[in-house]
């Protein structure tokens, strides 16, 4: 009568290294969101990538950042299907870089 799922913890690294990776990916997501705003795409705001309030878990921060990224449904599903947190951030960064390249080309009229 209702959906069920088997879930498991997503292994994420901890410490300064993860913080550096998160900050790097966050900057890239913000850049992509700024380009979306410049293009006038509806419903996009760079504030979507703002850090969560203190006390939010690392997992919440990672998935909030992934949700804020201007990606299509296939890319979003690929991010969700990533089996580990560090791989998720790496993939997210790569997909956002591709999106930035696409949005930059649209802005320049190519």
Q: Assign an overall shape.
A: globular
**Element pattern in H and E:** HHHH
Helix content: 55-70%
Kindly, what is the distance between the CA atoms of the first and last residues, rounded to a whole number of angstroms?
50 Å
Instruction: Provide a count of the helices.
Output: 4
Based on helices, strands and strand pairing, what is the structural class?
mainly alpha
Biggest sheet statistics = none
Radius of gyration over all CA atoms, rounded: 15 Å
The parts where pLDDT drops under 50 for at least 5 residues are: none
**Which percent band covers the strand fraction?**
under 5%
According to DSSP, the number of beta strands is 0
Q: What's the rounded overall pLDDT mean?
A: 84
Short description:
61% of the residues lie in helices and 0% in strands. It is built from 4 helices and no strands.
Structural descriptors:
single chain, 110 residues, mainly alpha
Description:
With 110 residues, the chain is mainly alpha-helical. Helices cover 61% and strands 0% of the residues. It has four helices and no strands. It has helices spanning 16-39, 58-68, 73-80, 85-108. Helix 1 packs parallel to helix 4 (85-108). The chain is globular, with a radius of gyration of 15 Å. It starts with 15 loop residues before the first helix and ends with a helix.
Write the layout of secondary structure elements.
Elements: H1 16-39, H2 58-68, H3 73-80, H4 85-108
Helix pairs in contact: 1-4
């Amino acid at each position: 009568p209702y959906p069920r799922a088997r879930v498991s913890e997503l292994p994420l690294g901890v410490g300064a290294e993860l913080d550096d990776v998160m900050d790097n990916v966050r900057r890239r997501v913000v850049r992509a969101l700024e380009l979306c705003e410049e293009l006038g795409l509806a419903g996009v705001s760079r504030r979507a990538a703002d850090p969560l309030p203190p006390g939010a878990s690392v997992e919440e921060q990672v998935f909030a950042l992934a949700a804020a990224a201007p990606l299509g449904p296939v890319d979003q599903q690929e991010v969700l299907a990533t089996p580990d947190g560090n791989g998720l951030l790496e993939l997210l960064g790569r997909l956002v870089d591709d999106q930035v390249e696409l949005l930059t080309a649209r802005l320049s009229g190519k």
